[in-house]
Amino acid sequence: MISALIADDEQPAIDELAFLLRQDPRIGTIHQASSGAEAIRLLTREPVDAAFLDIHMPGLNGFDLARALQRFERRPALVFVTADEDSALEAFDLAAVDYLLKPVRTERLHRSITRIVEAMKAQAAPATDAAASAQPEMIAVTLGGTTRMIRRDEVRYVQAQGDYARLHTEEASYLVRVPLSDLERQWSDAFVRIHRSYLVAIPHLARLRLGGDHPSVVVGGAELPVSRRLLPTLRERLESTTLRPRP
């Protein structure tokens, strides 16, 4: 069970987030603080696993509080919960696990809790276990003039758009100033080229139709074509990820 702290100077916001958190069976005790100073006092007495912090609080704001928590021996996983779309870069500079925009949606909060669980597992992993302790790769993207951070493992597929690439996630798509060919090289560990216009994330492949005249794959509800030239590459990558009984 995850113990949590909600720090927000508006009680209705605390009540709403606490209600949503209680819907998730992974959440245990929930503490509340109406200011950054009160949060510090509470965490000094009773550490928690995760802290959900509003950014704009009087006095000690959410970012000040996050910096203060860096000095704690047991530092909680940080999730910023705010109506401010423009502070994501600073949030992830402070090693935030996630950045939630108000009003918080249940399914989005569920993913944040999953990220907290992953962060707790990574923190508990032996230092020599590089794979288990590695942090998810974060990518700076722009949408509507606002820069935010997304996790690479949220990207389902990438679409070429001239000298740019469009990253498609469950929630939205983002244009980045990187050619598809560059992403193909940089992300070859988890993505495979299926067409001159598409890279797909292997973990997000839902269905495959590799026979017939028009092979295709389904990723995140989108059906994407597979070129004949790249079909052997896709088959080879899928072969390498197939589980087999031990001889």
Structure described in brief:
The chain contains eight helices and 15 strands.
Write structural notes for this entry.
The protein is an alpha/beta fold and 247 residues long. 31% of the residues lie in helices and 30% in strands. The chain has 8 helices and 15 strands. It has helices at residues 11-22, 36-45, 62-69, 88-93, 106-124, 130-133, 180-186, 231-241; strands spanning 2-7, 27-33, 50-53, 77-82, 98-101, 138-143, 146-151, 157-161, 164-168, 173-176, 191-195, 198-201, 205-209, 216-219, 222-225. It has a 5-stranded parallel sheet with strand order 2-1-3-4-5, sandwiched between helices. A 5-stranded antiparallel sheet has the order 10-9-8-12-11. Strand 13 and strand 14 form a beta hairpin. Helix 2 runs parallel beside helix 3 (62-69). The protein is elongated and about 65 Å long. Mean pLDDT is 87; it is low at 127-133. This is LytTR family DNA-binding domain-containing protein. Keywords: DNA-binding, Phosphoprotein. The modification 4-aspartylphosphate is found at residue 54. One of its GO terms (molecular function) is DNA binding. Residues 139-240 form the HTH LytTR-type domain.
Number of helices: 8
- Taking all Cα atoms into account, the compactness measure Rg is 21 Å
What percent of residues adopt helix (DSSP H or I)? 25-40%
Dominant shape:
elongated
* Structural class by secondary-structure content: alpha/beta
Strand order of the largest sheet: 2-1-3-4-5
Number of strands: 15
Give average pLDDT, whole number.
87
Keywords: DNA-binding, Phosphoprotein
GO molecular function: DNA binding
Domain Response regulatory: 3-117
Protein name: LytTR family DNA-binding domain-containing protein
